[in-house]
Amino acid sequence: MPLDTSTYNLALLRIDGRRWNELRQLRGQIRTQAAADGSSYLEMGNTKIMCVVTGPSEEGKRRNQGASSASAAGSGSSTSASATNAADILVSVVVGGFSTVDRKKRARSDKRIQELQATLAKSLAAVLHTHLFPRSTISLSLHILSQDGSLLACMINAATLALVDAGVPMTDYLVACSAGSTSSHSAADERADPLIDLNNQEEQELPFLTVGTLGASDKVVVLVCESRVQVSRLEGMMVAAADGCVNIRAYLDSVVREKGHRMVAEGAVEKGASMAMDIDV
Amino acid sequence: MPREAEPSLNERAFVVQALQEGLRVDGRAFDQYRQLELKFGEQYGVADVTLGKTRILVKVSAEVTTPYTDRPFDGIFTITTELSPMASPAFEVNRPTETEVLLSRLLEKTVRRSNALDTESLCLVAGQKCWSIRVDLHVLSHDGNLIDVSCFAVVAALRHFRKPDTSIEGGHLTVYTPAEREPVPLSWLHSPFCVTFSFYGEGEITILDANLLEEQLRVSSCTISLNRHGEICQIAKLGGTPVEAATLLQCASVALNKVKEFSTLLDQKLAEDAKRRNKGGLLAELSAENER
């Protein structure tokens, strides 16, 4: 269903009333599942994802068939943990049948899902200090409850939150944001504006990419683009996305700190000297 | 599950150290490809591509089928990849490895989703008859950089392919044999090519066309697909060590130059092949003269 994006130029407002550099409403929670080692729930607009982390735990009997794995050294091919003395990361993605408008049954072996799993596993392997947990497994399970664009970005952010909750040491937050460009690939106008955090309607119509950065730096861990776009637009889109990542990182950090703050206030954890975080009660 | 033999610690240290000193084990420059060779088969739509020791065979075939009910005006276009145990002991039959899944997704995004082939032109009778174009890719030998070679081979084979000519008269579809009517090429819109970059160290060393050993040791990789008009069809940096954004932008411009080279090479090879097949047109074909 084509979407009329020509109205953007009139008021510089997007279809949902945002400006080009505005994120949708972010809403995040951590420690949502009491039984899990780490868990999170993240909403970016109407994209809603729940993530549960188990581990680091001793390696199970059999590797999960549907999941993709990567270890710290894993690059081209996924290497097993036993050989590298680092924790394996298993990611499994479950797409709820109710997550989109048309109810579609997606097989677990869908190549797109497998690619998402592999992307998540490899990018998390780059930021987690997996060498601290030799011969163990960190398994993540992501449940997509609702899809409305920026799916990969939301998955990465939810996974980061859950891993923070699980207490797995990491270099910095891995945050991701999507960015698009107004006007389609065929129009070679130079005045195309970048847009960030696209929703589903915009994704259908505009070229877009997803950038995952290490915290607020401009080091890119993930860069995925699946649509046709002029190479000259790339820079603008990447800069806009990196800008979005900085804002998302600030939000995720506030979620973590708020939770920590509340846990100290409730007496769930003692405010010890060992805590590196500065939590003022 | 069988795995690829991992390089020994000595090899690891040697290759990485050499790269840091600006040298590659096989003596190439960092941005230099191995010798890329393309051979077309006797039949239309067969391409055999070798890049160093990596070799890939692609065969394109077409048949008339009924279109999908949700897309009555589109033909069917599928790309299937097969990584057989012949290429590497790590590949098993009927059990796609991650390499294979990622490769086929990449080809799908590069060639299919970027609309390189106009699928609407494959429609014969709306909702009833259409061409189904099938691309079979076989990896005969694996020495790294499967993605770039596969993409080149698929594009080459599709551009070389000719489908039988057809006509419709009064709702009656006729498919002509090559003897009756000259087969026609596919309606091809643009030629995308993949260029894969491998990163080493902390992401500051970038090389092109890594061989198998280099591929096993890289810390991260990024595949950029472009056509020669400078349109990005796909970018995939799926995790791995963080790389500066500026480096990636630089990669994109390097990739554009490489893609232009690929494009020229392919055009030249296609022209050569067309010349070889053209034996002087209809006159030469109809001549009753014999060689004595």
TrEMBL record, chain A:
Entry superkingdom: Eukaryota
Pfam family, one: RNase_PH
Segments forming domain Exoribonuclease phosphorolytic: 22-169, 191-242
Comp. bias (Low complexity): 66-81
Keyword Cytoplasm tagged: yes
Region called Disordered, residue ranges: 56-81
GO molecular function: RNA binding
One GO process term, biological-process aspect: nuclear mRNA surveillance
Family note: Belongs to the RNase PH family.
Subunit structure of this chain's protein: Component of the RNA exosome complex. Specifically part of the catalytically inactive RNA exosome core complex (Exo-9) which may associate with the catalytic subunits RRP6 and DIS3 in cytoplasmic- and nuclear-specific RNA exosome complex forms. Exo-9 is formed by a hexameric base ring of RNase PH domain-containing subunits and a cap ring consisting of CSL4, RRP4 and RRP40.
Full protein name: Ribosomal RNA-processing protein 41
From TrEMBL, chain B:
GO biological process, one term: U5 snRNA 3'-end processing
A Pfam family recorded for this sequence: RNase_PH
Alphabetical keyword list: Cytoplasm, Exosome, Nucleus, RNA-binding, rRNA processing
InterPro entries according to UniProt: ExoRNase_PH_dom1, ExoRNase_PH_dom2, ExoRNase_PH_dom2_sf, Exosome_comp_Rrp42_subfam, PNPase/RNase_PH_dom_sf, Ribosomal_Su5_D2-typ_SF, Rrp45
Domain Exoribonuclease phosphorolytic: 32-164, 191-257
Molecular function as annotated in GO: mRNA 3'-UTR AU-rich region binding
A GO term from the CC aspect: nucleolus
Places the protein is found: Cytoplasm; Nucleus, Nucleolus
Recorded family membership: Belongs to the RNase PH family.
Protein name: Exosome complex component RRP45
